[in-house]
Amino acid sequence: MPALTPEIKAALTALFGDRARFNKVERIVYSHDMGALPDSIRKAIAPVPDAVVQPVSDEEVVALLKLAEAHALPLVPRGAASSAYGGAVPAASGVVVDFTRMNRILRVDRDHQTVTVEPGVVWQDLQNSLAQSGLAPRLYPTSAPSSTVAGWVAQGGSGVGSYEYGFIGRNVLSVKVAVPGSVTEVSGEDLKLVDAMEGITGLILEVTLAVRKLSQDVPVLAAFPNRETLFGALEDLREKQTGLWSVSVATPTMVAMKQKASNHHDLPEDRYLALMVFPAGREALVMPSLKAAVIARNGELLSPAQAEKEWDERFYPMRLKKLGPSVISSEVIVPLHRAADFLKEAEDRFSGEIAFEGTMVGSGEVTLLGFILADERRKSFSLAYSSALVVMDSVRKYGGRLYSLGMYFTDDAPALLGPQLLARLVQHKEAVDPKRVLNPGKILPPSVDRVSPLSMLNAAVKVARVGKSVLSMASNLLARFESGEHESDLPDGVAEDSFACAQCGYCRSVCTAFDAVPWETSSPRGKWYLLKEYQKGNIPFDAEVADALYACTTCKRCETVCQLQMPIAEEWMHMRSVVGEKGFELSGLDLIRHNVVEKGNFWGLPNETRKNCIPSTVKTLDNGPVGYWPGCWASFVMSNMPTNISRILQKAGQEFVYLGEQETCCGLYHALGGYTRELGETVKKNIDLFHERGIKTLLLACPGCHATFTETYPEVARHLGLNWDIKVKHVTVLLDEMIREGRLPFEKSLDGLYTYHDSCHLGRWAGIYEQPRDVIKAIPGVTYQDMAHNREDGFCCGLVAAFNSLPTVAHTGAKRVAEAEEIKADVMITACAGCGSQLNATSRAMGARVRQRDITDVVAEALGLEVQDPSETVGAFMGKAVELLKDSKVRATAR
Question: Which residues does 219 contact at the CB level (< 8 Å), separation at least 6?
Fold first, then answer.
């Protein structure tokens, strides 16, 4: 189909407003899923959509279908695109319908144990929500941190819990779907026309699932000497009909690759593993039979700690991709009694180069997912892809079948669906979608679909399948190790990780930028994909790409869930200088750079006014081993912090050096903007100043300064040949030490319910979580409670987003304040001037009950010291920040 006409674009814009995008970069990041394809196959389709839209209601979806039918416009439904079969990838361009914003849990029926959800609900979010009602999903995918309920239903998936509950379709009670001209609720036998059909028979609007009672799940891990004893034990357990809920398996190669990739070697790498899980209430029923079956087959029960760790790792099968950096997967379903034979052929053929993990479906089948390490940058990648097809083809001789048809294996539809269901499906498709606008090119092969866009694709897949017979397996695998380096003008770590990224979307689910502006370019995986496409020569490094790379608060939440444990935030920081070298900059950061260079601070105010933040009654030193560095935001915006700290230190008898107007910016904003020359000059100037003043330990109240001095200074100093020998300590750590040493005798009780906001730079960057909490809990009269998201999982305040997205700042601040309100906290404590300013201003704008206070406020007040309220000043400066940055945008630069 040709590109969208102006008429269609106008209609989509009228319907969705800013929830419709047509720009090149956004369309590119919606053109793929987790699968990496050879160019010969990808070129056989038209995967880049003409537009992406994000509906928020059934009515919008119905209106979109009407528009699509009128213009024969292909619609491609998309959940999280966390599979690798092309179901969420356009085959003939058109419009991707991203259901991310339709993510409400509509109804929970505790008595009847059911739940009804919108299509974009993520499984892990559903699990967390159900737990509040004492319920849990019956089963969920191993990609639960990112995959959506409707997406898994459309895939027809199996996963954790499938031993007891089978495929997801068995647990679906009804589905509401929209087709051109109508919305219907499907149940009973008709669910076969929706389950595993990738949206070709309707766009899913709601799913009603059967759920189970919440229970503590008990994992038991067993190791077996070979595949025969592993599956023999599972057959024994099947015959005894024990009360197992979930069973998964892993081959030695899988265990070894995952442990090598994560650099942890806790499990045996020469045995086959079975992870068996059951509800705690069934332990007396399960354990005797389980132990007997394991022992009878020469197996060994591993320790509970090893079992718990493997259970915790159930969502991370792609750890091994770090070794690739690409992975080609093959997923099949095999009868349990033939699983050992199938694995033997596959493992023998690939000589230890293929890794398998699997989950049991019912007690009689096993879904096996095989991984072959590859490198899509090499010419041999297409040969490795052919090798993967061997696994999928060979399963038939063992009575097995493919896991899914998606887009790439539609020729297998007659065998997988059976003639009756296929005929019924074709008839139903003709009735509900005569214009073929619903996800064309999926499930149905060209032989039964009169307008299928897959003729070239099917031919390309057939060529790939032939490739396996004309080239030896050894040459396919050894080709992975072709000599030669891959040329890239990106930093080495960034270049490698852009290909290694699993594209699983786990980062998307926790990303601060994506949560506020939920487009793929906001997410880390979207950025990685753009950088990969740039290195492959498919897109230029232009202003659109640069703009996407700036959409990050460097909060590091993505790193806590990344399957490959990549240092994402640090690599985005490295990319800032590359963006400059490519000729682009963020105008807001350039403005701050100018303020810092000219005036020595973020705000561009006279730097000599910094010293006003330290009371004249506090004696400071000109030279000495301990220095105090307030930072720009505390010095000018929240001067209550340095006032408090200086008085607390004086009361505790701690002498310190204060640099006054000689203090400038630490260099954080130079690093954020990629201004390497200015950053180097600042680092040298500050190091010289510290040495000149005799400072050995630097006390910091600003987590951003703390991250800069601990992460950036050592690196820059090494590069410049400077001696960085300064110890850095955050004031919360010092306060905790002083309280424990009895140096801070509290005089006043502060009553109320207190909670604490973890600053990203103090928490995820520095790992300082408990000391601030211990300080707060030590204050007389305080009742402490954490917010729902805390420590490693704490929400970012969003302030850093001000340079590229003020709406993100507002959204994120309001979300954090709302969490404090949910627990009815009286006071939300911060330990960062930036976070404090953001949450102070946000809570007041919201009219929230909770008050923001800095940790030094409550310590000082409990010590009997007078404390200032910075709210008025904060409000004024936050307004100034908005004025400074409201027009910030990516622009070309002469750097």
Answer: 275, 276, 277, 307, 308, 310, 311
What is the four-CA torsion angle of 36, 41, 43, 49, rounded to 10 degrees? Answer: -60
In this prediction, residue 894 carries a pLDDT of 59
The Cβ of residue 696 has, within 10 Å, a number of other Cβ atoms equal to 13
Overall pTM surpassing 0.90 (yes/no): yes
Beta-carbon contacts of residue 550 (< 8 Å; ≥ 6 apart): 579, 586, 803, 804, 890
pLDDT the model gives residue 469 = 39
pLDDT tens column, 416-451: 999 999 999 999 999 999 999 999 999 999 888 878
Kindly state the tokens that stand for 603: 């705000």
The 10 Å CB-count burial string (b at 16+, else e) for 465-493 is bebbeeeebeebbebbeeeeeeebebeee
The count of residues in the chain is 895
What amino acid occupies position 153? V
**Of the candidates 350, 372, 164, the residue with the CA atom closest to the CA atom of residue 248:** 164
Give the model's pLDDT for residue 477. 43
Find the helix or strand (DSSP H, E) in which 366 lies: strand 365-374
pLDDT of 384: 78
Residue 137 φ then ψ, to 5°: -60, 145
Distance (Å, whole) CA 12 – CA 34: 28
- The segments of the chain whose pLDDT lies below 50 read 1, 468-481, 483-484
DSSP letter string over 207-273?
EEEEEEE---EEEEEEEESSHHHHHHHHHHHHHHT----EEEEE-HHHHHHHHHHHT---S-SSSEE
- Position 478 scores a pLDDT of 42
- Cα distance from N-terminal residue to C-terminal residue, the chain: 42
Instruction: Please name the amino acid found at residue 874.
Output: V
Per-residue pLDDT, 39: 81
Distance CA 837, CA 841 (A): 6
DSSP string, 54-76: ---SHHHHHHHHHHHHHHT--EE
Tokens (6 digits) for 45: 């389709």
Structure tokens, 3: 């590109």
Question: In this predicted structure, what is the pLDDT of residue 1?
Answer: 46
Q: In this predicted model, what pLDDT tens digit does every residue of 518-564 receive, in sequence order? A: 999 999 999 999 999 999 999 999 999 999 999 999 999 999 999 99
Q: Which is it for strands 300-301 and 217-224: parallel, antiparallel or unpaired?
A: antiparallel
Closest CA to 888 of 611, 588, 672, 592: 588
CA atoms within 13 A on the CB side of 340: 14
Cα distance between residue 304 and residue 310, in whole Å = 10
- How many degrees, rounded to 5, is the angle at CA 536 between CA 535 and CA 541? 45
d(CA 201, CA 589): 49
- What is the per-residue pLDDT for 270? 96
Distance CA 261, CA 253 (A): 12
The residue to which tokens 């880049």 are assigned? 48
Phi-psi region of 105 (alpha: psi -120 to 50; beta: other; left: phi over 0): beta
Beta-bridge partners for 362: none
Longest dimension (CA), the chain: 89
Backbone angles phi, psi at 876, to 5 degrees: -65, -45
* Matching residue, tokens 């990224």: 501
Residue 71 structure tokens: 């213009």
- Asked if residue 446 lies in contact with residue 455, where contact means CB atoms within 8 angstroms, the answer is yes
